[in-house]
Specification:
- The chain is of the alpha+beta class.
- It folds into 4 domains: 2-138 and 164-275, Sandwich (Immunoglobulin-like); 288-582, Alpha-Beta Barrel (TIM Barrel); 586-660, Immunoglobulin-like; 679-794, Golgi alpha-mannosidase II (Immunoglobulin-like, Sandwich), CATH 2.60.40.
- It is 19% helix and 28% strand.
- It is built from 14 helices and 44 strands.
- The strands form 7 sheets. The chain has a 10-stranded antiparallel beta sheet, covered by helices on one side. Strands 24-23-22-21-20-19-18-25 form an 8-stranded parallel beta sheet. It has a 7-stranded antiparallel beta sheet with strand order 2-3-4-17-14-13-11.
- α11 (525-533) runs parallel beside α12 (554-569).
- The longest helix is centred in the middle third of the chain and has 24 residues, at 442-465.
- The chain is globular.
- The protein starts with a helix and ends with a strand.
Length: 795
């Protein structure tokens, strides 16, 4: 078969510039390496190189973690003697027949990547770089499987302490770098920078060090590389060689994707097209998720719920730590409720099936107050069993007959449980002695397990409930973002977590969070809470602490509640940005270079970020750089000139800086105790006019998977400000979903440069408006969402 493919390739290259239907090309190089190039799209190319006749199986593809159903692409081939040229409508790859070196140019002839070269174990660079890698991580202080915090029954298995192994069995992919070129991504592998040129990044899931590595980097020059392997690998980003990005693989072959675009968002979109768009959580999961103290029983938790409602502090979900289990840290599939502490059912019904929710008992009462309930989980199991059985069943073959770990959780869901918090214990532990059901070892499975756990959770819950559910995991690898939410591990809620959020956002992750307020200093507690308010999803994990708002001093308690109420007010904006991310790969937390790629002042800006398109968050600092334009202080409404770093005091009842982008339009909702408590037939929209600007608010039903079939409503707001006139429009809504509103009222708060002279609502002059402190307030009804609503203000 391979000989036939080679003959077909030879025939193809003998016919210059003729469009071909095939999108996969094989080449035997002069150095006896086999090379395969798959043209996935006009902008995405998968490249494999091996010294053998067959390429190693890719488990990410085998287990459906990665896209494999690419459409055919028109690609032209030309044999230039010593090189082969592959041309799509957008890019041209020139491949050396000698050693497989690749050069990439766009259709205008601009060289995007001068050289991509595979270096085998015999290459001097491979050994030299390998030694450097080992020296760099020789002092890495990783617990030798002492276990996750609190897991006092860990068996402390042996740990594979080898970083690279035999250099002769390793390889390097070298990619040229241009002067001034900047690199972003890598997941949670750096807690010092977001711009990684000059760093060495370790792609191996490790507790409290690199929980969510992402073997992906994107360049400021409009290209990215995804190292498509699950074995331990390293990205040396111009550290060992100043002009090269060297990817060190602990195997003797390579499998990687090159992707290209006009901007970093384009490259990020390509990466998430390959590994899966970010999971869209149910809307309630973007509210507050709170974990009470691990020693609380059902009455304590119910008292917490009552206190949240009494104090007017919104909250949507409470979860239980390991105390909910009969046996603490029960990794088995035989776990039960701790009926002495919690009664989702009578203890006498523990062996009775089917399970159901009892409205008069613990879970039923929580639901009655508008709360959801989650459970903490730990797992140590061979996840390849489920994957192989899925493949066998799809092919009509006999399955293993072995249990699937996720199946035992359905009885808790039937009791009324809404989701699960998946602890890294002991999935993130290494198991060097394991031989998995699929025949592979931990070398191939360790990183992959960090994807399979959330994948199997999501598929189990989807099949069992038919709706989106709350679940998250504190580790990950390439593709994890598609199957659930993430937290940055047991690393607190301070600066370490901040770096993780920024780097994960630049690596395709949207639903990231951390243990908010878990900081070492009382002085940092409120800034850390403020940080959490502006994360994609928000979890406060008491664990052994007391994080309930009622336990805080009066000033801090008021600030606490105010911040959570602000979070809920912003939910239309937050959830719209989440839907956008699920479609495009754009994160909610956006490191500054993603929004301002041409501003050199933000190349490595680490203590500020954009929250969606329009809000700039300054965190753990009272200094912030504002890009060009006239920004607005969110707290005071005052204008602040951009293009410089400002040291800006914030009110005493606030704990961080917050600025609004020029031209921003921010939809907000009324006060609520939980998502869906009141209808959204009236929204507040804050408008910060600056020339012409727009914002499209995305909505769906908040719980089903209908959005995957396009059930999304798009409401576009447009603003235009000139010297004499402000025009604001709500365009007819595009798209629909079940239960959407047929009409709406928008309570506009428009930040104007001067007093209005006349105000027109839907073409009619009105006196039902007010103007004070630079803000015009007026109601704009949209009698039918299929019609335009307009506001005109004359000065």
């Amino acid at each position: 078969m391979k000989k036939l493919l080679l003959l077909l390739f030879a025939a193809a290259v003998a016919m210059p510039m003729r469009a071909q239907a095939q999108t996969e090309f094989n080449l035997r190089l002069d150095n006896r390496m086999q090379m395969n190039i798959q043209v996935c799209t006009d902008e995405i190319f998968r490249i494999r190189i091996t010294p053998r006749d067959q390429y190693a199986e890719n488990l990410l593809i085998r287990y459906g973690v990665q896209k494999a159903d690419w459409q055919r692409v028109d690609c032209r081939q030309r044999d230039n003697g010593s090189t082969v040229e592959l041309s799509t409508d957008k890019y041209v790859l020139t491949v050396s027949k000698k050693d497989g070196a690749v050069r990439v140019a766009d259709r205008n002839g601009r060289i995007v990547l001068e050289r991509v070269l595979f270096r085998p174990g015999a290459d001097a660079l491979t050994a030299e770089l390998g030694k450097s890698v080992n020296e760099q991580f020789a002092s890495l202080k990783v617990a030798r499987n002492d276990g996750i915090i609190g897991d006092d029954r860990n068996r402390k298995q042996a740990k594979d302490t080898v970083e690279t192994g035999d250099y002769r069995k390793c390889s390097v992919v070298s990619l040229s770098m241009k002067p001034g070129e900047r690199f972003y991504g890598g997941g949670s592998t750096s807690r010092e920078h977001i711009q990684h040129r000059g760093e060495l990044l370790r792609m191996w899931a490790t507790y409290q060090h690199t929980e969510i590595p992402q073997p992906f980097l994107m360049s400021s020059e409009g290209w990215g590389v995804f190292n498509n392997t699950t074995v331990k690998n390293f990205f040396d980003v111009g550290r060992y060689q100043s002009d090269a990005l060297n990817i060190f693989n602990t195997v003797d072959e390579a499998d990687f994707y090159l992707m290209f675009g006009r901007s970093m968002p384009d490259v990020l979109s390509a990466f998430t097209l390959i590994t899966g768009r970010a999971y869209l959580q149910p809307k309630y999961a973007y509210g507050l998720c709170f974990g009470p103290n691990m020693y609380e029983n059902q009455f304590d938790v119910l008292s917490d719920a009552v206190a949240f409602r009494r104090d007017g502090c919104p909250c949507d979900l409470l979860w239980l730590e390991p105390q909910w289990m009969e046996k603490r840290y029960d990794f088995s599939t035989k776990k039960k409720w701790n009926y002495k502490l919690f009664s989702p059912e009578g203890y006498w019904d523990s062996l009775s099936y089917p399970k159901k929710e009892h409205f008069r008992l613990f879970i039923g009462r929580l639901h009655g107050m508008g709360f959801r309930l989650g459970l903490w989980l730990c797992e140590e199991y061979d996840l390849s069993i489920t994957e192989e059985d899925e493949i066998a069943a799809a092919a009509g073959r006999k399955t293993s007959g072995k249990e699937h770990w996720m199946d035992h959780l359905t009885k808790f869901i039937d009791n009324g449980v809404d989701g699960f918090k998946m602890d890294p214990a002991r999935t993130i532990d290494e198991h060097p002695t394991w031989k998995y059901y699929n025949g592979y070892s931990d070398k191939e499975m360790h990183n992959l397990n960090q994807v399979l756990l959330p994948k199997q959770m999501e598929l189990m819950m989807r099949r069992h409930t038919g709706r989106r559910n709350w679940h998250h995991y504190t580790s990950g690898y390439a593709g994890t973002q598609h199957w659930g939410a993430s937290t940055s591990g047991d690393n607190g809620g301070g600066k370490t977590a901040l770096f993780d959020q920024l780097n994960l956002g630049m690596s395709g992750h949207m639903n990231t969070s951390c243990d908010i307020m878990s900081v070492d200093s009382l002085a940092l507690e409120m800034p850390a809470l403020y940080f959490g308010v502006f994360l994609p999803w928000m979890q406060i994990n008491s664990w052994y602490s007391l994080m309930q708002p009622e336990y805080f001093a009066p000033k801090q308690k008021r600030m606490y509640i105010d911040y959570i109420r602000l979070r809920y007010a912003l939910l239309p904006y937050i959830y719209s940005t989440a839907i956008e991310g699920s479609q495009t790969g754009m994160p909610i937390v956006r490191a500054m270079p993603l929004e301002f790629p041409d501003d050199r002042n933000v190349d490595d800006a680490c203590y500020q970020y954009m929250f969606g398109k329009n809000l700039l968050v300054g965190i753990f600092s009272n200094s912030v750089y504002l890009p060009e334009g006239e920004w607005t202080d969110f707290w005071t409404g005052k204008k602040v000139a951009g293009g410089t770093t400002v040291t800006h005091a914030y009110p005493k009842n606030r704990a961080g800086l917050l600025f609004v982008r020029p031209g921003a339009i921010v939809p907000m909702q009324r006060d609520m105790n939980f998502v869906g408590e009141y209808p959204l037939d009236t929204l507040t929209v804050r408008v910060y006019p600056d020339g012409k600007s727009s914002f499209t608010m995305l909505e769906d039903d908040g719980i089903s998977y209908d959005f995957e079939q396009g059930a999304i409503a798009r409401t576009t707001f447009q603003s235009s400000l000139s010297d004499r006139l402000l025009e604001f429009e709500v365009l007819p809504v595009e798209g629909q979903y079940k239960g959407m509103y047929t009409h709406r009222v928008y309570q506009l708060e428009v930040y104007l440069p001067r007093q209005p002279r006349k105000v027109f609502v839907n073409g009619v002059k009105t006196k039902a408006s007010s103007y004070a402190d630079g803000i015009l307030k007026v109601a704009l009804p949209q009698e039918s969402i299929g019609e335009k609503a307009t506001l005109k203000v004359a000065f």
